[in-house]
């Protein structure tokens, strides 16, 4: 399949209260297998999905946060986090996982996957997409 | 225009399935093409034939099945989401060693790739859910 479209996965929910985050991640991994131009955005409580140091022992659920670290290997390298959502929750980018990807066009330099953007910038990014799936 | 529709919520609990069905009906009436309807998250529960709503209420599963029969709609239930929630076709039930299946006529179970492929092939992908 040669068509490459710009897909954005919009994540709006905290990771364990509902299944949206986990099942969103499952779609993202499949879309990467279709070699599409994939981005992810994290807004509202969705920013909690990227928090570092997640521990789920006490709630009997699988901690799926390590999967986000593997996204770079699937060429999912654009994770936009909305600045306002972080600020409203008293979070900074230092509270988030340190997600990296290796740029093969730049001597495999390690680069940050997470980019903090304003709501206005995110609106522009969404405007450029062809398919937006919202979770 | 060619549409793929994604339904993310179960019937009756949430309006998403109603709205999606009304959207599909309206789009078909206007001469548009529905490439695929993909049921994800609790949306897979739209595809059980064991639903029995009160007689004076709408029957969402039958609504989907009738649309599929009348217009040849491709109604796809995500297999991973379906397995978590106990939606089975005969093959899958047998593979899992289960004693029953419950998929409604007109629906089929397949993978998430069907959603992505729908997004690639369609002019617009419309998501119904929370």
Characterize the structure shown.
The complex is a heterodimer of chains A (135) and B (130). With 135 residues, chain A is of the alpha/beta class. Chain A has one domain (6-134): Hypothetical Protein Ychn, Chain: A. In chain A, 25% of the residues lie in helices and 24% in strands. Chain A is built from 4 helices and 7 strands. In chain A, a hairpin with a 5-residue loop joins β4 (100-103) and β5. The two termini of chain A are 26 Å apart. By secondary structure, chain B is an alpha/beta fold. Chain B has a single domain (2-128), classed as Hypothetical Protein Ychn, Chain: A. Chain B is 37% helix and 20% strand. Chain B contains 5 helices and 5 strands. Chain B has helices at residues 16-29, 60-71, 79-85, 90-95, 113-121; strands spanning 2-7, 33-39, 75-78, 107-110, 124-128. Chain B has a 5-stranded parallel β-sheet with strand order 4-3-2-1-5, with helices on both faces. In chain B, α1 links the parallel β1 and β2. The longest helix of chain B is centred in the first third of the chain and has 14 residues, at 16-29. Chain B is globular and about 45 Å long. At the A-B interface, α1 and β7 of A face α3 and α5 of B.
Provide the residue-averaged pLDDT of chain B.
Answer: 97
- Low-pLDDT segments, ≥5 res of chain B: none
Indicate the overall shape of chain A: globular
Helix content of chain B: 25-40%
Number of domains of chain A: 1
Structural class by secondary-structure content of chain B: alpha/beta
Query: What's the CATH architecture of chain B?
Result: 3-Layer(aba) Sandwich
Give me the count of strands of chain A: 7
Radius of gyration of chain B: 14 Å
SSE string of chain A, helices as H and strands as E: EHEHEHEEEHE
Describe the structure concisely.
The complex is a heterodimer of chains A (135) and B (130). Chain A is of the alpha/beta class and 135 residues long.
List keywords for this structure.
heterodimer; A: 135 residues; alpha/beta; Hypothetical Protein Ychn, Chain: A; five-stranded parallel sheet; two-stranded antiparallel ribbon; 25% helix; 24% strand; B: 130 residues; 37% helix
């Amino acid at each position: 399949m040669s068509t490459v479209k710009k897909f954005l996965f919009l994540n709006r929910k905290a990771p364990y209260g509902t299944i949206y985050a986990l099942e969103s991640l499952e779609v993202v991994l499949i879309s990467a297998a279709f070699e599409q131009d994939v981005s992810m955005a994290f807004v509202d409580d969705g920013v909690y999905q990227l928090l570092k140091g997640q521990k789920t022992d006490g709630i009997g659920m699988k901690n799926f946060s390590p999967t986000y670290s593997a996204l770079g290997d699937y060429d999912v390298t654009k994770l936009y986090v909305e600045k306002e959502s972080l600020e409203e929750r008293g979070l900074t980018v230092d509270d988030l996982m340190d997600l990296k990807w290796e740029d093969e066009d730049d001597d495999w330099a390690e680069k940050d996957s997470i980019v903090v953007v304003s709501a206005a910038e995110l609106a522009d990014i969404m405007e450029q997409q062809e398919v937006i799936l919202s979770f | 225009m060619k549409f793929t529709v994604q339904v993310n919520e179960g019937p009756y609990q949430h309006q998403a399935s109603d709205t999606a069905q009304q959207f599909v009906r309206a789009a078909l009436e206007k001469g548009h093409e529905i490439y695929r309807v993909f049921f994800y998250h609790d949306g897979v529960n739209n595809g059980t034939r064991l639903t029995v709503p009160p007689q004076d209420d709408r029957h969402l599963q039958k609504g989907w099945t009738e649309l599929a029969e009348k217009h040849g709609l491709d109604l796809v239930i995500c297999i991973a989401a379906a397995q978590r929630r106990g939606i089975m076709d005969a093959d899958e039930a047998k593979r899992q060693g289960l004693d029953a299946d419950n998929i409604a006529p007109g629906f089929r179970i397949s993978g998430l790739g069907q959603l992505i492929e729908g997004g690639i092939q369609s002019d617009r992908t419309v998501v119904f859910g929370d």
